[in-house]
Amino acid sequence: MTSMTREMINTLLNSRVEIAFDKVSANTEYLSVCKQQGKAKNEVDKLFERFSEDEKQTIQRYTEGETHKQHFEIKECYLQGIKDCFKLFSFLAGVESEVQL
Question: Which end of the chain is more exposed for a tag (fewer CB within 10 A), N or C?
């Protein structure tokens, strides 16, 4: 895959992710999970006060690193899904062509 193709697919992925976030923001189950996470964050923030500044920074770097890593993993999953769809469409188009002949 060329870098230009990859960039175009990434642009498509980013736009689709935005659409997905728009849709999920109306999902009551998702909103309930967000509310629970908000409560949990408040509890974690209280616990976080017990740590020294160095410990807080270590925890912060770790959680940010995990989030960054997950971003790459999810993006790669979406990219693989697109590749699989193209392969499936190509296969189905080939099968359809054979049947029509």
Answer: C
